[in-house]
Amino acid sequence: MKKICGLLILIGLLAGFSVSAKKPINTLVLTGQNNHNWPVSSIAIKQILENSGLFHVDILTSPEKGKDMSSFVADFSSYSLVVVDYNGDNWPEEMKKRFVEYARKGGGIVIYHAADNPFPDWDEYSRICALGGWEGRNEKSGPYVYWKDGALFKDMTSGAGGSHGKQHEYVLNNRNTKHPVMKGLPAQWLHAKDELYDRMRGPGNIKDMLYTAYSDKETGGSGREEPLIFTVDYHKARIFHTMLGHAGQTLEDNPSMQCVGFQVLLLRGAEWAATGKVTQKVPKDFPTKDSVKMRLEYK
Ligand code: ZN
């Protein structure tokens, strides 16, 4: 009898252990070309994700701009999450095919900042991002999409897609309290100094609008409430798109990514994209409507 009891306790302990010691989410960051400081942003992303204890991050770096891209082909099979931190030369056809397959089968994807700039003529990628900017985008890329009268508004006016005013601190406005990424997050929070993307265009297949921000004409903006953080409706994929996080000069001087709001949204969006759930509590140092909060060490 004693032996059986001991065995049962042992089984219980093992079961308990397997629940608490979850394997980290295997994550691949695609980077290597960008009009942004990708050596800083890709490391910042890796540190933010890994310092949470929830993720293991590999970084795949492309050849330099203008060089032969044929070696840039990822094996997505061992990853639950792909973070795109890339804005550069076209990917090889095999890479494009594998990325679309990964997405369509239900892969988790984070589109980060300028990752919504490249490949304006690659239709599937445009649909994976829902909205994009620059690189010749115009009315042929899809409508301008922004928040108007409490809903998403699609504006077919012609004109260039993608711009931003000067960098400044701005308030994010909550548009969804039920999505797993959003549970417990405040109605408004103040983001550290960053670009505020505006006049973005694209197919506009946004699934859940999470946060918008007002792009003030006084800072060179559009005068519209711009969609900045949302999920995308694309086959079975879970796609989290954040336009925040213009990388700074160094890891130490990188306010938009050192912002707690940026980090927490990235962490929650990444977990949701990978698993469909968010197990993280809203931290005590989350910014308020009036005060920016920083985690200088990305943890
Ligand atoms: Zn930028």
Describe this structure in words.
By secondary structure, this protein is of the alpha/beta class. The relative contact order is 0.16. The termini are far apart. It has a single domain (24-275), classed as Rossmann fold. It has helices at residues 2-20, 38-51, 93-104, 123-129, 255-258, 260-275, and strands spanning 25-31, 55-61, 81-84, 108-112, 144-148, 151-155, 163-164, 168-174, 188-194, 197-198, 206-214, 225-232, 238-242. The chain has a nine-stranded mixed β-sheet, sandwiched between helices. A two-stranded antiparallel ribbon has the order 5-6. It has a two-stranded antiparallel sheet with strand order 7-10. Zinc ion binds at residues 36, 113-114, 195, 246.
Provide tags for this entry.
single chain, 299 residues, alpha/beta, Rossmann fold, two-stranded antiparallel sheet, globular, binds zinc ion
H/E element string? HEHEEHEHEEEEEEEEEHH
Strand order of the largest sheet: 2-1-3-4-13-12-11-8-9
Q: What is the CATH topology classification name?
A: Rossmann fold
Q: Strand content of the residues, in percent?
A: 15-25%
Main beta sheet strand tally, sense and closure: 9 strands, mixed
CATH superfamily: Class I glutamine amidotransferase (GATase) domain
Q: How many strand units?
A: 13
Radius of gyration: 20 Å
Share of helix among residues? 10-25%
Q: In the CATH classification, which architecture applies? A: 3-Layer(aba) Sandwich
Derived from helix and strand composition plus strand pairing, the structural class reads: alpha/beta
Model regions low in confidence, pLDDT < 50 over at least 5 residues: none
Task: Please tell me the overall pLDDT.
Answer: 95
Rounded to the nearest angstrom, the distance between the terminal CA atoms is 49 Å
CATH class bucket: Alpha Beta
What is the count of helical runs? 6
Shape: globular
Ligand types: zinc ion
Number of domains: 1
